[in-house]
Amino acid sequence: MGFSVSGSFAILVLASFIAFGMAYSAGANSFERVTDATHDSYERGLDRQNTAINVSEVTYQSGDLEVNVTNTGTTSLSINATDVIVNGTYRQSFQQFEVVGKPDSDLWLPGETLAISVNDSSLQSGDTVKIVTEYGVAAGGMVP
Amino acid sequence: MASVSITHLVLFIASLLVAASVAGVLTDEVGRLSEAINDQGLDASQDVRTDIEIISDSGSSASIYDPGTQNITIYVKNTGSQQLVASADGMDVLVDGEYQTTVNVTVLDDTTWDTNDVARVRIYRPGGLSTGDHRIKVIVNGDEEVFEFNR
Questions:
Q1: Can you give the pTM of this predicted structure?
Q2: B136-151 pLDDT, tens per residue?
Q3: B27 with B63, same domain?
Q4: B59 → closest Cβ in A128, A132, A136
Q5: B75 vs A contacts (CB less than 8 Å)
Q6: Domain containing residue B11
Q7: How many Cα atoms within 13 Å fall on the side-chain side of residue A119?
Q8: Which residue of A has its CA nearest to B77?
Q9: Which one of A10, A57, A117, A133 is CB 3.0 to 4.6 Å from A96, fit for a cystine?
């Protein structure tokens, strides 16, 4: 009888250890995954709060729309992640799309101005221009 | 004496079998529970990492609804930190509270809808869109965004 109880107990203890190991690793992995995601989300939220842009100038001459946008926030932005919507249409080709004085850089740092030039002869006075940064922060202007 | 030993042996084997069965069921059930916890954690982290913004210009309402094709077009930017599914199966769209079934999603500047990429969402409204205020709600991985415009 003694061996039966000891043997059964040993099997149950071993199974309990295995079960606890599985449950703990699953719980710990999930918790870490969600914590990482939450941390990442907070970081992006903080960057979004620190992002601000301002359309400083919009000119339209001979079918060329030129827009100057200044990074007035405290985060560095990416030009490749910046989107332009002119008169409600998403634009993918530009005559000029660069930070003033830094034509080869993707970084749009605080205080710097992004110069955008689009050729579109169909625009009219009052049409809208919208610039959207990588964090979704946007600024708008109007065709003069 | 021999019969007592055989009885003990039978009881010993039986108790081991019962204990092994219980242990098997326990580890099996905990294994299933662990898989469920893993899946739940993955889903929760994907929900947290998902963030979208509707970047369409509500000031240019003429470009949002085309009465000729009866299509509503909006641009949705992935502002989160994970790749999203660029198809109608990956998002739910409601226009003025009505669930839309004919939705076409196209990523504009890439082949996959990664972080910072913009997707064009075309919603076909066979009944047309009356003049006045309208509200579009886009839901991706639990992240809801509302876009209001005037026709």
A1: 0.88
A2: 999 999 999 999 999 8
A3: no
A4: A128
A5: 83, 85, 90
A6: 1-49
A7: 4
A8: A136
A9: A117
